């Protein structure tokens, strides 16, 4: 029996994803929350090693949500401020991530997020366009460099409308400027039912 089912019973998570709201979880969600033979758990482990090898533990986090496995990358790991072209420094990391994606059959959604500082240029009249262009450029890299089927990849921009934290300070705004790469779970896979993401790297979370 998968560990997550026992855990669900132990903490009184109710059917349909409802649960008692008692605040912060007593344990972080990690690859151990899945069947350790599941493909998502193996991907988690491979990406975790990749992050460590690139010394990005403060800038990249891995978590599970109701959607699947979420890899969250801070803006400056991929882009310069206000720019949508991938930085030269990001290519080696994306090359490794693309290699992981290409070995799987999962659908992958790439999401762009910004802070709430307005942008209004001829090319980017708002943060919607900026965040979407960044997500699309990551998607295009995976298609062009790894020949990943476009049928498996999706790109979407959320602008400033899904912040992780308040935008009150420069440090908080930096946390909100990010790209998320989501391996979408298959219907038969068991994931933690809490829809709030529990990050394995609290340094990057709120």
Number of separate domains? 1
In terms of quaternary structure, the protein is single chain
Question: Which percent bin holds the helix content?
Answer: 25-40%
Mean pLDDT: 81
Instruction: Assign the CATH architecture.
Output: 2-Layer Sandwich
Q: CATH first level: which class?
A: Alpha Beta
Strand order within the widest beta sheet: 4-3-5-2-1-6
How would you summarize this macromolecular structure in one to three sentences?
The protein is of the alpha+beta class and 206 residues long. The protein is 30% helix and 16% strand.
List keywords for this structure.
206 residues; alpha+beta; 60s Ribosomal Protein L30, Chain: A; 6-stranded mixed β-sheet
How would you describe this protein?
With 206 residues, this protein is an alpha+beta fold. It contains five helices and six strands, in the order H-H-E-E-H-E-H-E-H-E-E. It has helices at 3-10, 39-53, 91-102, 127-146, 170-176; strands at residues 60-64, 68-74, 108-113, 153-157, 178-184, 198-199. Helix 3 crosses helix 4 (127-146). It is globular. Mean pLDDT is 81; it is low at 1-31 and 193-204.
List the helices and strands and how they pair.
Blueprint: H1 3-10, H2 39-53, E1 60-64, E2 68-74, H3 91-102, E3 108-113, H4 127-146, E4 153-157, H5 170-176, E5 178-184, E6 198-199
Parallel strand pairs: 3-4
Antiparallel strand pairs: 1-2, 1-6, 2-5, 3-5
Helix pairs in contact: 2-3, 3-4
């Amino acid at each position: 029996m998968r560990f997550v089912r026992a855990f669900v019973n132990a903490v009184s998570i109710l059917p349909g994803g409802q649960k008692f709201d008692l605040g912060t979880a007593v344990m972080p969600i990690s690859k151990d929350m899945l069947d350790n033979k599941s493909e998502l758990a193996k991907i988690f482990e491979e990406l975790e090693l990749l992050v460590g090898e690139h010394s990005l533990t403060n800038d990249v986090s891995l978590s599970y949500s109701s959607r699947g496995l979420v890899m969250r990358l801070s803006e400056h790991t991929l882009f310069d401020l206000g720019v949508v072209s991938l930085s030269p420094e990001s290519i080696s990391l994306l090359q490794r991530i693309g290699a992981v994606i290409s070995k799987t059959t999962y659908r992958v959604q790439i999401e762009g997020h910004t802070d709430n500082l307005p942008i209004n240029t001829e090319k980017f009249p708002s943060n919607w366009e900026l965040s979407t262009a960044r997500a699309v450029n990551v998607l295009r890299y995976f298609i062009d460099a790894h020949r990943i089927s476009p049928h498996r990849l999706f790109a979407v921009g959320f602008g400033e409308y899904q912040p992780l934290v308040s935008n009150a300070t420069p440090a908080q705004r930096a946390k909100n400027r990010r790209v998320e790469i989501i391996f979408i779970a298959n219907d038969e896979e068991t994931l933690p039912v809490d829809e709030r993401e529990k990050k394995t790297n609290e340094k990057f979370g709120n």
